[in-house]
Amino acid sequence: MRRVFRVGGRADGRWLILLALVIYFGAVWHWTRTQGWVPAWHHVRVASLAPDFNDARAVLGSYDRFRAGATMDQLHSAPKGVTRVTYPHTWLVFSYLGLGEASTYPVALTLAAACFGFSLLYMGRISVGQAMLYLALLLSPSLMLGVERGNADLLMFLMVLAACWLFARQAVIGACALLLGAGLLKVYPVAAMAPALRHKKGELTIFACAALFLIFCYTQMQDLAWVSQSTPRDSGLSFGEFVVPDRWHLSHLVGVVASLTVAAAALAAARRARAWTLPDDFIGSGFVAGSSILVLCFLIGNNYAYRYWFALLLFPQLIRWVMSAEPQARWAVWMLAGLVLTTWATSTAPLWLMGVTLDWLLFGGVVYGLMSVLLPSAFRQSSSLSP
């Protein structure tokens, strides 16, 4: 694997990624013009919905109705032919920017371009061999599903990426404040505060943000409960502990027990292993933040596959470990392969069983890696046994 990653080391492989993205979206644009939105995306194996940029259109259209005097109840029960909004009312803050359904294309295209552009900056200079691996992830049906829908998780990805940049510059309070804001919109981004645990006084900052977040959850309990009940729990294009129970009509308790068992096994394995070295730079912070989000999302239950955008945050550090002679290099190879495979299998109906199996294995692997980085040495059983 190291030999493959060194291929084309003198060139900057990001140009290859950029070229591939231009060709990909050029083809989708051509098929959209000649065949329509849904058939165009089906050519690249992405589960498409009409109308175009469905999720972005639903949110932005709700802003038009809100400014026209619609109440939250009316926004939640959308008129016939309009996709219902299942986001907390905190999203209405963007309505004061004047955005509406007419802004769908500019907003969706800007979010997608920003995600790809800042991802290229995050990964830094890479070889051609490494670029091929990134392309396998970026062009997967799971990540492109978020682009096709214009989903709000693209904005969450950008906010988490910005917070990781702040963590790398020791701006812990600023990073946590940004993630708190993201949490008020989508809840799960608060997990990305985990890098603060590796900084001085980071625990205090997290405690303060957690207190504010709990106050928000308490005051908005009814709104959040409605969102939880109304959000579709898909079992075909999703990952999480409830996907299998929902697909096979089992109790959710089965998923909870299984995920806790896997997490406990991964934690026990991490306690017996040596601590892993991880720098407090942009990439190191991204690894911790991305891993924490994937773990929390899995435990939430059902998450559409476009949340695997956060897997991209793990890739640069995993590649670092593969290129090193450290013991975790082999684990990193398996994680890279698993993450790429599951982003294709999870969004491909005939490969559903393969995808859900990989999702569970990756959940254990991510917990193991995260604990190997964060677990204090005092709690490691092998600390006294190491030569």
Mean pLDDT: 91
Across the major sheet, the strand order is 1-2
Euclidean distance between termini CA atoms: 29 Å
Low-confidence stretches: 382-387
The number of strands is 2
**Fraction of residues in β-strands:** under 5%
Shape: globular
Instruction: Count the DSSP helices.
Output: 18
Instruction: Give the class from helix and strand content and strand pairing.
Output: mainly alpha
Evaluate the radius of gyration. Answer: 21 Å
What level of helicity do the residues show?
A: 55-70%
Polypeptide structure, described:
With 387 residues, the chain is mostly helical. The chain contains 18 helices and 2 strands. A two-stranded antiparallel sheet has the order 1-2. Helix 9 (153-168) runs antiparallel to helix 15, helix 15 (282-300) packs across helix 16 and helix 17 (329-345) runs antiparallel to helix 18 (352-374). The chain starts with a helix and ends in a 13-residue tail after the last helix. Residues 382-387 have low confidence and may be disordered.
